[in-house]
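ingest -> validate -> predict -> emit
validate: passed (alphabet ok, no gaps, 670 aa)
predict: started
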Amino acid sequence: MILPFLPASNLFFPVGFVIAERVLYMPSMGFCILVGYGFHLLSERWSRKMTWCCLGVLLLTHSIKTYNRNADWESEYSIFMSGLKVNQRNAKLFNNVGHALESEGRFEEALQFFHKAVSVQEDDVGAHINVGRTYNHLKMFKEAEQAYLKAKSLLPKAKPGESYQARIAPNHLNVFLNLANLISKNATRLEEADLLYRQAISMRSDYTQAYINRGDILIKLNRTKEAQEVYERALLYDSTNPDIYYNLGVVFLEQGKASQALAYLDKALEFDPEHEQALLNSAILLQELGRPELRKIARERLLKLLAKDETNERVHFNLGMLAMDDRNTDEAENWFRRAVHLKQDFRSALFNLALLLADDHRPLEAAPFLNQLVKYHPDHIKGLILLGDIYINNIKDLDAAENCYRRILQLDPINIQGLHNLCVVYVERGKLLQAQDCLSHAHELAPGEEYIGRHLQIVQTRINRLRQTPDGSREKEIAFADYDPQEFGGTPGAPLSTGGNVELSLGQPIVHSNSEQLAGSSGSSQQADLLRADSVDVQYGSDNKQKTVLPHQPLEQQQQQQQHQSGPIPADDDPVFLESESTNNLQSYAAAAAAPAVDSIAHKARQYRTEDGSSSKPLASGTRNTNHPSDGSPLHHAPHHPSSPHLHRPAAAAATTIGQDLDDPSSGMS
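emit:
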């Protein structure tokens, strides 16, 4: 009986496979019994002294061996390296050493061991998957794709004209997910990724992770109905998975079904009360409904998140939004300041904090936050407009204001708001001829804006008065100085146009006036009364929503303007006290293995439009196409709450998001 076992005993030569020590615990009992029986026999035949000496030597040598072996168990890396000292012909040992190094973030060293595993056993699918995943960690995406394709080619293939069943290790199906995750980073290859997920599902109908990831791809492809069907099918196999309910909630948000979305987010919390993204995004949705009793629940959920992680700037920001809904500006300011402290480039928090301070008649406190905003986000047009407003009205720095408005026109040459305010700077400098041409150009771009026409007429009247004064005055010299019309997008020699009688709407100006008259001369100085960015009053109506009211405007015009405001807002605009996110992709939560924090389930997280560009990861993140009229909007306007806000992408532990690879446990320790 012993002879057949000897070739596989590993006593005379290494056999190439590894047996875990735990497997030998029970068999070692027989060895101990054999030693005891041998001691009994030897003590009867030999002297008891000699027998005890032999037993002592045996115990001493094994004790020393056990003591030395303890050092090998110091870490995963040391235990697997000790195995390699004994046997270097086993791919599983190389994979295990690679996994240990990978868990410590030592990806370059891990890659060497994974390559060694491939060289030892070229048909090891798990080793090729590990190579691809490590390349992905190292941002070597082309090499990662090649490794995944090699692993995929080693799977059993269908034979033409034959029908048969092949047994594929479940963990080997991860190659489909990892390859799909990789190529889905390229927006032009989403259909390829979808095909890979469908292949994985065809091989294993209960592959929940493939359903989740495929749903994410379908959302990216704007096929939300199919995504809903995929998630619902996943529930057939895993009806207690909170991430599936969460993703279904986001799908319904995409479809504009807020009540159903909230129901699924609440269902996710029913199975996992600590689900961070469901807590955050359901709180935002509850706030969106605008009912005081629901805002209380939203606040409780946000405070619960805050107790778990005080460094989450999004929680601070949304608590600030809740405070604004409750008209508690002091508390809102506090939360916004905390959000900015935690994330210095938090786009929405910076802008909304500055706007809050400006509306609270503290423009000099707002200016540093606006400068910080345009430092990190130089394309933030509304921030530049508000900053220019403060430079003109409060700091009295026309050069800085002009730089702000020129930057706006570089970003958007037909931005009427920025162009008009640049014209105002020319008026303030006394460059009336240049201001006239500038306003004429603005009127050509926006002939429907009555205020531009009126201001143009005021400037022309002032020019005509100045022409009647004697030559040689400094004021007249400045007013008629040469200039380049291209500075404001005008054309040299273009004819001037006068303003017509058109209806004024709330669409454009940040500049309003308590006095329509630009001019009148008094002594040697003439003061321009043209309104540059006087604050628009923000009031609360009976529906507890903030409403914008222009001074000295008929009620009919105010109502028309409020209707004008309620339309969609362009992606680069910031609703007042609303979060916006510049993550431009819509991605799924896709649960199952630890994931780093993304941006954006919008998202950029689309969580009311969070514009900080986080990543969060993230179910979905992205930019919602809510917009104001295409020609712009006043700086101070009422909060606009999209009817279907998108939530930003979760970054939860024990979750695999799109783009994150799964390893192959089968290639590790048995």
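The two ends are 27 Å apart (CA to CA).
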